[in-house]
Design a protein that fits this description.
Order of helices and strands: HHEEEEEHEE
Number of strands: 7
CATH superfamily of the largest domain: N-utilization substance G protein NusG, insert domain
CATH class of the largest domain: Mainly Beta
Strand content: 25-35%
Shape: elongated
Number of helices: 3
Length: 127
């Protein structure tokens, strides 16, 4: 086998490595931008089937039971963050999502058509 044939049979080329490095760098830049430019929210909006059913302040700790036609959830606010701590849906993905506290972050419970969203209260906006 000659050395010219060896180069042609390579699985990974220099171009592949450069492309991979480009993707890693782009991902790192996007992560930094999203992570460090997100701002803390002030309110929690709870939607049922697209309609606001509750607006809560992130500054007031507590447990808030949410009863919908599809089921029940418990929303907990603690130390400026919100989470769904209990749900009677079968998969409990909303409980597994953990806490959120930054503007425009959401927790979604599809079986109950429930969305918990953190955001800044916009002027003139009513729940």
């Amino acid at each position: 086998m000659q050395s010219g044939e060896t180069k042609k049979n390579r699985i990974v080329t220099k171009g592949d490595i450069l492309l991979l490095l480009l993707f890693v760098c782009a991902g790192a830049v996007l992560f930094i931008l999203v992570h460090f430019t997100s701002s803390a929210g002030a309110y929690v909006y709870i939607y049922e089937d697209g309609e606001v059913i509750e607006m809560l302040s992130l500054s007031e700790d507590g447990e808030f039971p949410i009863h919908t036609a599809a089921g029940n959830n418990t929303v907990t606010i603690k130390d400026g963050a919100v989470s769904v701590t209990e749900a009677d849906c079968p998969d409990k993905i909303c409980v597994k999502q953990g806490t959120i506290q930054n503007d425009k972050e959401t927790i979604i419970c599809l079986p109950h058509k429930l969305v918990v969203e953190v955001r800044k209260k916009q002027e003139g906006e009513k729940p």
